[in-house]
Amino acid sequence: xxxxxxxxxxxxxxxxxxxxxxxxxxxxxxxxxxxxxxxxxxxxxxxxxxxxxxxxxxxxxxxxxxxxxxxxxxxxxxxxxxxxxxxxxxxxxxxxxxxxxxxxxxxxxxxxxxxxxxxxxxxxxxxxxxxxxxxxxxxxxxxxxxxxxxxxxxxxxxxxxxxxxxxxxxxxxxxxxxxxxxxxxxxxxxxxxxxxxxxxxxxxxxxxxxxxxxxxxxxxxxxxxxxxx
Amino acid sequence: xxxxxxxxxxxxxxxxxxxxxxxxxxxxxxxxxxxxxxxxxxxxxxxxxxxxxxxxxxxxxxxxxxxxxxxxxxxxxxxxxxxxxxxxxxxxxxxxxxxxxxxxxxxxxxxxxxxxxxxxxxxxxxxxxxxxxxxxxxxxxxxxxxxxxxxxxxxxxxxxxxxxxxxxxxxxxxxxxxxxxxxxxxxxxxxxxxxxxxxxxxxxxxxxxxxxxxxxxxxxxxxxxxxxxxxxxxxxxxxxxxxxxxxxxxxxxxxxxxxxxxxxxxxxxxxxxxxxxxxxxxxxxxxxxxxxxxxxxxxxxxxxxxxxxxxxxxxxxxxxxxxxxxxxxxxxxxxxxxxxxxxxxxxxxxxxxxxxxxxxxxxxxxxxxx
Lengths: 229, 370
Hints:
The structure holds two protein chains of two kinds.
Chain A (H helix, E strand, L loop, with lengths): L3 H30 L5 H13 L2 H12 L4 H6 L7 H25 L3 H9 L4 H29 L3 H7 L9 H10 L3 H26 L11 H7 L1
Chain B lengths: L12 E9 L2 E9 L3 E5 L6 H9 L6 E6 L2 E6 L5 E2 L7 E4 L11 H6 L4 H14 L15 H14 L4 E5 L7 H18 L2 E6 L2 H7 L2 E6 L2 E7 H6 L4 H6 L5 E10 L2 E6 L2 E5 L9 E5 L5 E3 L14 E12 L2 E8 L4 E6 L14 E6 L5 E3 L3
Parallel strand pairs in B: 3-9, 3-10, 7-8, 8-9
Antiparallel strand pairs in B: 1-2, 1-4, 4-5, 5-6, 10-11, 12-13, 12-15, 13-14, 15-21, 16-20, 17-18, 17-20, 18-19
Helix pairs in contact in B: 3-4
């Protein structure tokens, strides 16, 4: 078994995770804290990859990243059938998991705490940095790990936009597919075990983040309690 | 202290604004000096919204808010001004403390401060609050009273000119509440703060406030020294808010030189002379202390000659300083009678007894507009 698919998968996942964080965190903040027209539409668009067949997502991405797309012409990007396209596809598919978890975590931060920070002299970025994000940290991290795991396993959309070029865009899930097609079950077994282990590891990490920080007896602040009833 | 009215203290904070939220209209006029002004009213009357507007957490539709001559908010003539909350120098102790759960007590107090000097300052504040030994505890490891003191220390750390407290001690037991009220009064004096203290409990108002502002339905109904507001409520609403029982509606029969004659659903009453046209529907009340039970075998003195009514005692309960009887009058309404512990001992009043009452004429307060 060549190590290349694993290394490429890690590279793609790392890039996708960075991309998801950069796009997903502002989106989660926006959806959690602002009421605006079209919020439902934005949310639906973000969540669409959860329910669409990966080939459909891939097809849209082909249109968006292909020749003739305004984005590509304007920036002069040629990313189709490179690892960058694989990273973008993985990010699009993983994004809803991050946004959902992060949004719930941010919405769960008592606005009175943010107001308290404001009356204590904090600017809006400081409120975000010192109050909102630290308090929502666990939900954000849990969502990020889940989204990264999903990105690592991305297959369908990646195949559409990046192809399955050994040594260039063949990530681990694609390599497994190839191995099975070629009846190389020894290689397939090794890679399947590796993927399964990684999946377990990430689920364990999510559990760690989602576990309450304090013992169960510790109560939430009375303000939070009221808001929930 | 000398309190003769609204102008008794030279104001530091002046607020006069109008604010509209779905179905709710708030119109507030307040002037607060170096004092504790108690903002009192039933829940839903707009007390918290008033504090939020003063703190800069919500924006009124129009009006202005001025602190020590510096305009914090203005939207009515002149260029609009809206100083953000972080620059207002207004400390706010929220109803449920709003301590940062991810920070220790010390970190909470040091939140508005910077550097090593800030740390030392925060530590000193905690010491003042007798909380130094709890500096490294998280809020959920503190009792309600301790959390409250951390919240106050944190608000004071930012060196505010005004301190807003929203139902600050409502979750605490009576002893702790009293203790903190005394401490709060001391800090207020020492730091020369203008304090607005929101509560819906009248006891808090008496325990702490120098002046009282009564809010109802988004309006400040009356402002003045507490005893004065309590003794001479300016309207039926204020009387009701102050928890005065025996408020009723009656119709003016005649305005005579010797008094105002009222008809309370069939019971004829006379109050002190007042110029109200016959036929007007008025709101009136008589304090339970001013309803007397008549001895059947004693001559009537002048004070209780008027406004006699027969009734049956339907309930009685002991209260601090005596007993309160509920008496159903001949017109079907019930009235409360408060008397001292040994008064009427000879009458041996029991539930079910029929008694003759007198509503003291001088104590019958009539508001022309309800």
